[in-house]
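I have been asked to look over a protein record a colleague put together. Alongside the sequence sits a line of tokens, each denoting a local backbone shape. I have pasted the whole thing underneath without changing anything:
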Amino acid sequence: MRPYKILLFMTGILVVLAALCIVLPGRVTIGGTEVRWPTLTQVFDAQTAAKEVEIPDRLWNLDDPKEAALDTTAIVLTTDSVTPSAPSVVPPKVVVDSTTDSRIFLSRFYASLQTTDSCKVRIVHYGDSQIEEDRITQQIRETLQQRYGGSGVGLMPLLQTIPSLTVRQELRMNGRLISASQAQQGPARYLVYGPKSMQRTDGLYGAMGQVAIMADSLVPGSEEVVVVCKPQTASAHYSTWRIFADSTIHYTVSGDTVHLTGRGAIYGLSQETNTGVIVDNIPMRGCLGTTVFTKIDSTQLATFYREENVRLIILQYGGNAIPENDKPETIHGFVKSYRKQVRYLRRCAPHADILFIGPSDMVRLKDGIWQSYPMISFMDKLLRKMCLEDNIAYFSLYQYMGGAGSMLRWREQGLAGSDGIHFYRNGARKAGNAVATWLLEPLTPNH
């Protein structure tokens, strides 16, 4: 078929579809089956939304004003193209105490901050992909360290498969560079939140929920791993290395470089100080957070939390439970599982307080209209209710953003991505600063 005939054919199809959108309503029922299509307005709105400008996914040098400006590039998106619609499922009403400032449950943590001149106080921040690259955690760490001392980024895995904004990491095994994409060629890795092929049966994952095993199959003890971790920000500089590994692993430290030899498990490396505040960033991509901690050996967790003086455990989960679940009973099940994880962590760290950061607003394109997922507000309320009942602090990221539809405004401002779920790095900085400010501002009256 000649090109002009193809063009005429395609034009005719578009004309017929346009006429269908104009003449008929957006849906009809044929033989008991509902057939739906967008209106012309929705079609053009969807096209407008499709013109978003993607910010390249690479590491920005936040100390470089030119690159920092690029990180805040606005997304081209018009307000009228993303008008929220009513949710298809209306969740039941949840009665939540809105008068209690949940920071009253952080009293032991606040008291520990008064001791940072003579010892270190550790905070462990667990979460899903929203905190990858040290996002959100970085702002919490820097704010607390500026006020209470301390420096360094804390815990890191032996091999960092997701680059960090604060530390550039390089791994060599027996003299060969192992890149993030070649992780399977380095020491064997096991993840508590990974596929079954990467999970252990003994629960020995360490506090990070992942472990690397040095086990040269040719000559016992001959394997050598060299890790270089170079701070990328002023606040990432440190005074000491900590190596969390089996006693069979031997290591030497020279500047930003650690040489490790032997056969055994490495649970993590840490750049830190002996006093002040240490804040660990432990992201778990794709993790729901509903079973992860109860799979880690309790004795191992308890030992780390006790010996490292962990005084605050931050949990940031829930976002991965939203996109595929529109049923209130399913969300109830997730929150019930979070309660189980929280109580397990409390038994492992009886001296630590716990803060739960709820999911952000998230949006999807449905029937040509951008709208928030219907269960986010419901989960946010259930999580707050659960936290108040279990004496846990709760920060509502959803409410801080502005509630339903707020992700649309964040996208318009260049703070969030086109997927309607993840923050851009400047958006993550804003969220992290909000959490840090909330943590340190005076308690509300009567508390």
